[in-house]
Amino acid sequence: MATQAEAASPYDRIGGSDVLRRITDRFYDLMDSDPAYKALRAMHAADLAPMRESLPGFLSGWCGGPRQWFEANPGKCMMSMHKPFPITHKTAGQWADCMARAIADAAPDNREIADAMTDVLARMAKGMALD
Ligand code: HEM
């Protein structure tokens, strides 16, 4: 029989919605303030508030937590969401680096799941580059 620890989803292990919100806020704070992410920031709308709402909901369902975001956005997927944006190796690399820093800053307690999420998200982002 699986133990409690083995059965816990990545959502639970990272710390649930509070931690996903903290990661997201740190991600957009860094994107908004560090010139290293200038090209990535320029792709986004001036107002990042809608993204601060949307990304934690997406991440929740994506890592095994509540799925309201997917229920509210039927048929939306990574490809359709990003179709309008010509993602390059440069901007995908900026996304992955910014997210790695955000996770390290906002979810320092459980290195194993934090490192696993960082790795998978970086692979996803880099796989989205069109060049
Ligand atoms: C590869 C690098 C990526 C770039 C350059 C990128 C860029 C963008 C941009 C420009 C937007 C629209 C933002 C706005 O309207 O202000 C967006 C939306 C979004 N992105 Fe990404 N993105 C990337 C990777 C990812 C990844 C890996 C995820 C998920 C883990 C993700 C999740 C989302 C979500 C949930 C939205 C909001 C969609 C909506 O609410 O309609 N993105 N992205």
Description:
With 131 residues, the chain is an all-alpha fold. It has a single domain, classed as Globins (Globin-like, Orthogonal Bundle). Helix content is 70%, strand content 0%. The longest helix has 18 residues. The model has no long low-confidence stretch (mean pLDDT 94). Bound molecules: protoporphyrin IX containing FE (HEM).
Secondary structure elements and pairings:
Elements: H1 4-7, H2 10-14, H3 16-33, H4 38-43, H5 49-62, H6 68-72, H7 78-82, H8 89-106, H9 111-127
Helix pairs in contact: 3-5, 3-8, 8-9
Residues 40, 43-45, 51, 54-55, 58, 81-82, 85, 87, 91-92, 95, 121, 124-125, 128 line the site of protoporphyrin IX containing FE.
Tell me the strand percentage band: under 5%
Give the number of domains.
1
- Arithmetic mean pLDDT: 94
Bound small-molecule species: protoporphyrin IX containing FE
The CATH architecture can be named as Orthogonal Bundle
The CATH topology is given as Globin-like
Low-confidence stretches: none
Helix amount: over 70%
Instruction: Identify the quaternary structure here.
Output: single chain
Number of contiguous helices: 9
Report the sheet with the most strands, covering strand number, pairing sense and barrel closure.
none
**So, the CATH homologous superfamily?**
Globins
Using the alpha-carbon principal axes, give the shape: globular
Give, in order, the helices and strands: HHHHHHHHH
CATH domain class name: Mainly Alpha
